[in-house]
Amino acid sequence: MDNHKPITKEMVEHAKVIFQAGIDAVDPAEAVRNCCRLDNNRLVVSDTPYELDSFENIYVIGAGKAAAPMAAEIETILGDAVSEGAISVKYGYTARLEKIRLLEGGHPVPDTNGLENARAIRNLAQRATQKDLVICLVSGGGSALLPLPANGITLEDKQRTIQVLLECGASIHEVNIIRKHISAIKGGRLAKEVYPAKLICILISDVVGDDPATIASGPTVPDSSTFSDCMSVIEDYDIARMLPAPVIEHLQRGMKDPGMETPEPGSHFFAATKTLICANNMTAIKAAAEKARTLGYKTVILSSMIEGETRDVARVHTAVAREVMKTGNPVPKPACILSGGETTVTVKGKGMGGRNQEFCLAAIDDISGLEHIVILSAGTDGTDGPTDAAGAVIHGYTATIAAKKGISIRDHLARNDSYSFFKKAGGLLVTGPTNTNVMDLRIMLIR
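Above: the chain sequence. Below: its structure as tokens.
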């Protein structure tokens, strides 16, 4: 077995190179550059021209892990035409800006800085008039970075609510339904503040299916969800007793008062709004696939829309890898199998980790002893849960390494303690902030 370890090491490096190719493909500045250009004195967004001379002011607002490089590119394109701006980003996810204020806040749990950032952004949106243009840049992480609670709800109430939702196993769609309805800025309400100014929304998608209403809880797009939907989510996961009383009371009031609802599709608040997605998970997967091909792997893309409980998803993926090893289906060796999306972890233990590290931890036993299988799972934002790792990398020898060090896979799974496992056994993937976010990328290499 020792004779094959150099090959395994090479495959680990290949997996990292393939992952980086996916990250490079969703570079926020390039994504903005691909959809926006200056033509004489017109800003052309996709195929829509905006005569810059027709606006008194051009404001730039937004939030998300990719918002800083997106804003930097807008400044590069428009130059002095930008009047001013304000964006909210996760700590450390920065870029050099001239006219747009860079505001940092907490993620995934919002903090007081994020609250003040959201107020500053709303105040700027409210200043816009019919003679102005507002450009809103939104990417993954925007929900936590725009934490402006509805009246009667405190930041602490919101923090507790998000924590409960993240730990109960709710999908990002379900989490965002509630986020919108306990917010003063999400679910189209930011567009309501911008109206009647013209509004351009440029999005980098971090959600399955690329629904603009779900990306960062849709601050500038119509919302078809309701207060009743919020209560259904709470009932489905049986978490009412765990949520702050002001949140439950607010949602119950909203069910009775139509005037509290988020702006719905067809509302006049969106009459002068253009929305487009400039990068998504499939953008990253396709680039990763191309890199894998150049390295000699026959490549299959499973899906960019994979959701579900992380451990279950891991078992399905390892079953596919073992099928390739045994029969050459659905692709012959050497093979690279790619998938994306965003799984969920139902937290039962008190350990530390994230969905990508847990995915790899859950997959170890299934590939134990199988030479020449390498699996990488990581967040494209460089962050996996409340850790400094983006994810992890495993191979057929990982179980043996853990056993020799006396590290129990089962015990760490029971505690949801994947980070500690990989810290001790090796395999953590640490990239640092990538300044982008298009969900997760999973790579399986089989020789």
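The chain has two domains: 2-23+282-446, 28-148+183-225+262-279.
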